[in-house]
Write a structure and sequence with these properties.
Blueprint (H helix, E strand, L loop, with lengths): L15 H12 L9 E4 L13 E10 L2 E10 L11 E7 L1 H14 L2
Parallel strand pairs: 1-2
Antiparallel strand pairs: 2-3, 3-4
Helix pairs in contact: 1-2
Length: 110
């Protein structure tokens, strides 16, 4: 079961609350206790997104000539005993694109 946290104020490049809610709905009851999703609103990575199973780091992308919020997607990081940096698997994704890719990655690695 995924924990529901109180919404945080949005100060990053990407709205972490929006993507967290999308992931909560799509992945509820699906992930094991050992799998962790880290969502950082900017490249500073305060949520340690590079060392979680699935990591998202906020950034800005240009789509149709307009700047939009986006995320970079990391996968395969391990915290604790494994200690491994995740690989950047996709860059400058919208929230919807990121959620779709996360589901695909988790399905491939089951």
């Amino acid at each position: 079961m995924m924990k529901t946290l109180l919404p945080l104020r949005w100060h990053g490049l990407a709205n972490t609350n929006e993507i967290a809610e999308m992931l909560r709905k799509e992945l509820s009851g699906r992930m094991s206790r050992n799998e962790v999703i880290g969502i950082s609103g900017c490249p500073n990575g305060c949520a340690h997104s590079a060392v979680t199973t699935v990591g998202l780091s906020g950034c800005v992308a240009t789509r149709d000539g307009e700047k939009v919020e986006a995320v970079n997607l990391f996968f395969g990081g391990e915290m604790g005993r494994g200690e491994k940096i995740g690989q950047l698997v996709a860059a400058k994704l919208t929230s919807r694109e990121a959620v779709k890719q996360i589901i695909d990655l988790l399905n491939k690695n089951d």
